[in-house]
Here is the input.
Amino acid sequence: MLHGEFRYYTHYDSPGSLGMEQSLTQGTAHILSTRLPRFWKALPIPALAVSYLPVPKTAIERVRDIPGSLRFDALVAGIVSGISVDQMHRDIRYLTNEDGTSDIASRHSFHHARDSLPSAACSFMPFLEGFAPNIICSDTVLISGHYDSRGSFGSERAPGRNDDGSGTISTLNIARRIKQTSITFRTNVELVVFAGEEQGLLGSKAYAKELRERGTNIVLMIQADMLAYHVPDEPPQLGLAQFIGTMEVTQLVGNISAIYSPELTVGFTVVCCSDHQSFHEQGYPATHLFERANSIADPMYHNSGDLSDRPGYDLNQVRSICKVQVYLFPFRA
Here is the structure.
């Protein structure tokens, strides 16, 4: 956990210059995060060097062995068949307060996540003063999203229905099905929704570092970030991380999609740098699930208009990707 003052080092670069770094207090950095253009993301530069830990060969081999046992499983099919688009719609309207019942104007929605996961042993993990905590619900397979968001330039109103309300409701509905089916697992599973993603992966960096220091063995880490926008005249898609993450995990997800969600067109996306990066840096096998096998196309990305009931917001696509996440769990009947 991190407490007290946290300092950011922002790097400014322009053509013909060598760049400039400036140290900022947490309060200044918070203001800066509302002033960034929509396709810019904050990335705190630590004062000290951060070690990069490669994923061990044994961890990669373990992931490589999984596809050999892939086959259609009626138990998994029964679980995913109960994932409800109507329930997802209710969840996301609560998180954006479009139903008028939650008093949420921006993405500080951890109280709803806690209330929605009564079957799991959920806990709050503070990581930085002034930020909402991470929510840890369970450790070997980790499925996650991030529940913070960003609004329009200069605005703190951040309903975040797609970024990343879509990954959040996917996690919520997986947890709901765990409760409804009373399934057990061959090994431990964690469902996590991170805070501080938009300010530089702060929540996930803190948790991944903590897990590494504890010596926790993570077999798979799958981050779901932006699942819902469906470009008109394109097929429903699943975009897989091209640059950051473990390629063997990415290939595994693609194989699972072919079995359980053949309606999805699967390909690579250049979109990067979500919370899976924090686990990749700590030597854990990780990848990112995205809504499109291409670049970002959502016109409401990092916009205060990222709400529900708008063209292109497709909960059926979210459900299809959610099915892929479910199969990654090590079920036992």
